[in-house]
Write a structure and sequence with these properties.
The chain is an alpha/beta fold. β9 and β10 form a beta hairpin. The chain is elongated and about 85 Å long. The longest helix has 25 residues. α8 crosses α12 and α9 packs across α12. A 10-stranded mixed sheet has the order 1-8-2-3-7-4-6-5-9-10, with helices on both faces. A 4-stranded parallel sheet has the order 12-11-13-14. It is built from 12 helices and 14 strands.
Amino acid sequence: MKTEVLRLDGSDRDLSKLRYASRLLQAGALVAFPTETVYGLGADSRNPDALAELNKVKQRPEGKPYALLVPSIRAAEGACGGLNRIAHKLARVYWPGALTLVVRHKLGGTIGMRLPEHPVTRALLVQCGFPLATPSANLSGSPEPRSAEQVLEQLDGKIPLILDGGPAWEGRASTVVRLDSEGPPQIQREGSLAAAEVLRTALPTLLFVCTGNTCRSPMASAMAAKSLEGRTDAQGQPFRVISAGTAAHVGSPADPAAVRAMVEIELDIRSHITQGVQPHLLDEADWIFTMTRAHRESILMIMPECESRIRLISERGQEIPDPASGSVARYRLVRDQLAQALREVIPTVLAQAV
């Protein structure tokens, strides 16, 4: 077998090369291509003969599963039968990107999946129309290739085609996180993404939002953190509580009157530093609580995909007024309104933390 190498240069001619590669894959052949991590070796995940050929070329024992590259989160759900809350969040935050999720399969066992960021990989998946079983394009135990030349050194004559899209951006394999047990997520392999960051993101997270992030939202987050102290979600993970403002002056302290009102109930927010509402905070939050409807609408204008996770802090539909520049008595009133709202909200959060 002669291994053909097709260079992709970003021109219109690339489409015909991708179509050619997809026809080979559809016919059960193997194709190597770039991803943002390392070069991958793809096979039709539905075709037993293609998977057997993948084992043969990789010199890998049968029975060891391959991760799938998928074109969308919806395709990932279809491949496994559904994603739980944690898997959905990690996909929301890190896909497309260098994170492989190992989840339970609807028919038993587990399945690993990743939605890649590299445009060549994404385009090839679209052309194929099915997930690709894709290990790194090297012989088992050999270095993972970062270029088409390195793939050719190991697999020349063993596969029909290599798509050369230039060097892999990151040159390091994806991070793999297991979500298939009853316990907390486990890092199976640390790669391009830091393990500590992925595990922090996986924590069940409440985000409280007001305007300036100097009084209402830090007061609410402090009380919520106290209420959730020692509590965990269904996987045994502790809750993470954060706050932000839709028009915050970043880096400011909490309002002195808010600090005083909270000291009266033995909660200290003196170390609080204001931050603005950012897309990454919204993505990481499992629950987003706003003080007013206007805050909610402001967030939805930025990220409408948050709609299912965002609500007023008061389950009765009551808005929490801004006490800014008011007396300490006004801050106490707002504090007590927040406490009442949280007494109703926290049980809901605990019930949903599965």
